[in-house]
Every structure is written in C-alpha cells, then in structure tokens.
Amino acid sequence: MSVLNGKKILLGVSGGIAAYKTASLVRLFIKAGAHVQVIMTPASKDFVTPLTLSTLSKNPVHSSFFNQDDEDAVWNNHVDLALWADLMLIAPATSNTLSKMTTGNSDNLLVATYLSAKCPVYFAPAMDLDMYKHPSVLASFNALKSFGNIMIPAESGELASGLSGEGRMAEPENIIAFLEADLESKLPLKGKKILITAGPTYEAIDPVRFIGNHSSGKMGFDLANEAANLGAQVILVAGPTHYKAKNNLVEVIGVVSAQEMYDVCHEYFKDVDVAIAAAAVADYRPKVVATQKIKKAADEFSIELEKTKDILASLGAIKKNQFLIGFALETENEIENAKLKIQKKNLDLIVLNSLQDEGAGFKKETNKVTFIDQDFKIEPMELKSKESVAVDILNKVVSHFAKL
C-alpha cells in the first residue's frame, strides 16, 4: 500500500507546457488511493483543460477566487483549500509562479492558497535550461527551500524549445516515487517493529462448542492499521474475527485459542520494539476437551476449567527494552485494579476501559479510555471512535521513542 493512500493532496498547476503531464499525475495519485483537488492558474488552462483534471480527480477544479459564470459569485476559499490538504504539490512550477511564491505576490488563487498552506509543500520546477540556471530562478529555489518547501528537481532531456538539458519537469512516476520516499523517511515509527494482539480467543469444549467472549477485534485492527500508517512493521496476532487489515503491510497471524496466541507472541516478542496486548484472551479453558460432540442428555452439565497462561504477564516477565502496553476492561474499582495490573505485569502503559462508560466496550464503534503509565499518571480521554483511540495510543508510542 502506498504511503499516499488516504492522503489529501492539493495539486497546483501553473502555465507551462509540462502542464499536460498533470493528467497522468492525477491519475497516479488516485491509483495510489489519494484524494485530489486541483488549483490551476489561468495560464495553465491553455495547456490542459480543467475538465480533464476534474474528471480524473473526481472533484471540481478551481482556478479563480470566484466562479465568474455563477450568478451568486461563490467565493473559492483559498484558506479552506489550504487547510484541507495533507500536502500541497505545485507541478509544473514555472519561474513566474516560483517568483510569486517567493515574494508573496498573491494575484491568483494558486499563490494565495500556497501562502495559507500549513501542510508540507513540494514544488516541481519546469522551464528551459537557461531559465533553470538563471540567478533569479536559483534565488527562488533557495528562498523556497529556506521556507521549508521541498524541491523535486527537474530532469534532463529534450525541452519544448528544441534544446536538450536540465529543466524538464520530473516525470509523473518519478514525482510519485519522490513523494513516497520523502514521506516514508519522515514516518515517526519507521524502522520499529510492533506486535499487536486482537480479538477474542475460543477455548474448545468439544469439536462443536467453545467458550469465548464478545470481543470483535476492531480495536486491535485499528491499532495495527495506524501503526503501519506510521511506518512500523506490524505483526498482528488475531483471534477469530471478521475484520481484515486495511493496510497490506500488516502481517496477520490468525489463531484460535489462548495457547496458540501465547505461542505466537513468545515467538516474536524478543525481536519487537513494542507490544500492545489488545486481545480479550480467555482466562479459563476446559480442562478436558471432548473428542466427540457432547450429547444433550442430563438436565445439568458441568465443565471443569483450568487457568490459561497469562500472555501479558509472561511478556512483562521477560521484557528487556520493549515498550509494553496492556488493556484493562473493568466494571468496578477501575483505577485501583488497573494500577495493580501495571505492577503485576510489568507494563509501561495500560489502557483502561470501563463498562460503566456508555459507548465503550465490546462490539462498539467507539471507546472511552483512560491512560495510566508506570508512574501512575492518569490521563482520562473523551469518548472517541476506535480509530481515534488507536491514534492516541500510537501517539504514546511515538512520544516514548522521541524521549530516548
């Protein structure tokens, strides 16, 4: 999966012959899973039509501060466009547009939006070779880079003038590769390996029946997807669940029983930097599993249970430098019980869920958690979607490594 997947990309197109390449560029962004909006300078419409880019991006194309053909003269809000974007790319970036970006001459919608952008801004110059080397253009390059903007260098080859040399806008495939490589290098969990458990475990009674719980596994899968989006190598050990990993960089290992989950976790734990135990593992299992289906006969039936191995405690007992996070689902004395688990299981952080909180617990789209760290610092959070809770948890991981 491309790191561009899900990203909101604002593409600025200025008036140069290389503008024709933006059709392919938009198509590649969409193929990578990005959401694209396009802003064109008036001059760029001489080289590629707004209809083409609108069709490919599946969004209206903006080129002026208001729509002149609209009787109500609706304003195209450059601030809203800038705040919408996760990143802005100006391609092609002509010498005229580069100069306006440098000096703040916002006489068109593209430059006004650029000046309002708070996201990373990339620019891909395109001009003839003498222009590309001119001191004024070089000064624009240096100024924009000093602003924190990122230049995608032009390539060498045949130019529109008939000359051959440096100045061609990078090919769309190379722009995509540049963006992906740059974004990946800045991911906060790049190079980290994370083990996550998810879902319930099923403990067999006989070949047909089992003891289980209501965990859906959603929290663990959301954690795995977010960790992968942040650049981590993720191993997700999942009990029976219908959820699938959205990020194909997540390695999913399916298990059924607590013992199977225990074995897989111990196989990988020594090599990971972080372990997050989000699974709802059965505390007990039948002591004897019937080899044939148990027939309904007596009015009463009892099953002798034995304890399963405590996966989280066993990992805490052997951890070295791993950052270990556990979950606690409580119904009473929540804070006190969570603190005891931190000590007993040698955790760095515990994520406390209370079934007393409306909107939290199993089979819900939302969760309300409280973070408690090993120093017993308590941080209650608001009710949020489980995806947002996953972001909060991974932010704790990022903060941990930032302090090292």
UniProtKB/TrEMBL annotation:
The keyword DNA-binding does not apply. Residues 194-404 are annotated as: Phosphopantothenate--cysteine ligase. Binds 1 FMN per subunit. Residues 1-193 are annotated as: Phosphopantothenoylcysteine decarboxylase. Residues 189-399 form the DNA/pantothenate metabolism flavoprotein C-terminal domain. Pathway: Cofactor biosynthesis; coenzyme A biosynthesis; CoA from (R)-pantothenate: step 2/5; Cofactor biosynthesis; coenzyme A biosynthesis; CoA from (R)-pantothenate: step 3/5. CTP binds at residues 283, 293, 327, 341, 345. Residues 7-178 form the Flavoprotein domain. It catalyses: N-[(R)-4-phosphopantothenoyl]-L-cysteine + H(+) = (R)-4'-phosphopantetheine + CO2; (R)-4'-phosphopantothenate + L-cysteine + CTP = N-[(R)-4-phosphopantothenoyl]-L-cysteine + CMP + diphosphate + H(+). Keywords: Decarboxylase, Flavoprotein, FMN, Ligase, Lyase, Magnesium, Metal-binding, Multifunctional enzyme. Gene3D superfamilies: CoaB-like (3.40.50.10300), Flavin prenyltransferase-like (3.40.50.1950). NCBIfam families: coaBC_dfp (TIGR00521). Catalyzes two steps in the biosynthesis of coenzyme A. In the first step cysteine is conjugated to 4'-phosphopantothenate to form 4-phosphopantothenoylcysteine, in the latter compound is decarboxylated to form 4'-phosphopantotheine. Catalyzes two sequential steps in the biosynthesis of coenzyme A. In the first step cysteine is conjugated to 4'-phosphopantothenate to form 4-phosphopantothenoylcysteine. In the second step the latter compound is decarboxylated to form 4'-phosphopantotheine. This is Coenzyme A biosynthesis bifunctional protein CoaBC. It comes from Flavobacterium collinsii. The gene is undec1A.
